[in-house]
């Protein structure tokens, strides 16, 4: 539990950026917290590292920096994105401090739980096993899908700024970046097999995994509602959403808009 508290402290420090701008609790604070926890783990357990666990840590760093770096660059470069987000996301200026405090603690707890298989594996000095290699492969695929989806979306929006994206990976699912996110953390859970040595560590890791899956589906619902407002009258969009799953390829789940328990 000591290392969980240490990594929670790291996440609290990094995600505190949300006090500057509310949305940063779950955007910049998220990716940078994951990267910071991985870097902290690399330093703290440097004497126990193998080639495989170094790569394992680096995957977390790449994931976190890619995600938050992309969000930060988009916010700085794109004035249209900034203007759009002003109407789509609350700025938190009228939010009471106690509410922000609760969100800050909750987010940091989630990030520490999500990354638990990383630092528990290093702390337990678990031997490199098949589950680690399989998990890292899934994580790599997840990062690749997210990266490709972002590139494809940017390219499509440059050609047709006012049209929804339905090319590339968006032919398979309407939220391929969320699919990549879920794959990444699924790989993390797979990597935990053989590395977590007690029930409590498994509870922490599974809580983090279920938490991020919930967040992804909530984000998909928020995006669907926004796109329905923007493109809902477009017959081409209506045909697209009826034949393209929202999150997982080949699974006939086409909408989560009615699922109000997904609070995004």
What's this model, at a glance?
The chain is mainly α and 264 residues long. The chain has 10 helices and no strands.
How would you characterize the overall build of this protein?
- With 264 residues, the protein is mainly alpha-helical.
- It has two domains: 1-128, no CATH class; 129-264, no CATH class.
- Helices cover 69% and strands 0% of the residues.
- The protein has ten helices and no strands.
- Helix 1 (2-15) packs across helix 2 (28-44), helix 2 (28-44) packs antiparallel against helix 3 (51-77) and helix 8 packs antiparallel against helix 9 (199-231).
- The longest helix has 33 residues, at 199-231.
- The model has no long low-confidence stretch (mean pLDDT 91).
Proportion in helices: 55-70%
The number of strands is 0
Domains (count): 2
Structural class by SSE content: mainly alpha
The unreliable regions are none
**SSE series:** HHHHHHHHHH
User: Distance between termini?
Assistant: 30 Å
Average pLDDT figure: 91
What proportion strand? under 5%
Report the C-alpha radius of gyration, rounded. Answer: 19 Å
Largest sheet: none
Number of helices: 10
Shape type:
globular
Which characteristics define this entry?
264 residues, mainly alpha, 2 domains, 10 helices, 0% strand
């Amino acid at each position: 539990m000591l290392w969980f508290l240490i990594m929670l402290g790291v996440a609290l420090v990094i995600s505190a950026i949300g006090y500057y701008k509310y949305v940063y609790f779950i955007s910049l604070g998220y990716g940078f917290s994951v990267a910071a926890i991985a870097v902290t783990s690399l330093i703290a357990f440097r004497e126990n590292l193998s080639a495989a666990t170094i790569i394992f840590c680096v995957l977390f760093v790449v994931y976190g920096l890619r995600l938050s770096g992309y969000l930060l660059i988009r916010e700085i470069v794109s004035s249209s994105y900034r203007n759009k987000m002003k109407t789509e996301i609350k700025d938190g200026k009228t939010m009471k401090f106690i509410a922000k405090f609760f969100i800050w603690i909750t987010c940091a707890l989630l990030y520490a739980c999500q990354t638990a298989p990383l630092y528990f594996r290093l702390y337990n000095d678990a031997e490199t096993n098949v589950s680690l290699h399989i998990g890292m492969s899934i994580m790599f695929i997840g990062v690749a899908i997210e990266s490709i989806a972002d590139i494809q979306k940017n390219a499509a929006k440059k050609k047709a700024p006012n049209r929804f994206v339905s090319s590339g990976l968006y032919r398979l699912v309407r939220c391929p970046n969320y699919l990549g996110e879920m794959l990444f953390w699924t790989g993390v859970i797979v990597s935990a097999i053989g590395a977590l040595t007690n029930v409590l560590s498994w509870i922490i890791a599974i809580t983090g995994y279920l938490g991020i899956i919930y967040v992804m589906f909530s984000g998909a619902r928020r995006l669907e509602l926004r796109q329905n407002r923007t493109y809902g009258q477009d017959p081409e969009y209506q045909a697209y959403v009826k034949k393209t799953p929202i999150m997982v390829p080949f699974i006939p789940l086409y909408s989560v808009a009615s699922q109000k328990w997904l609070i995004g």
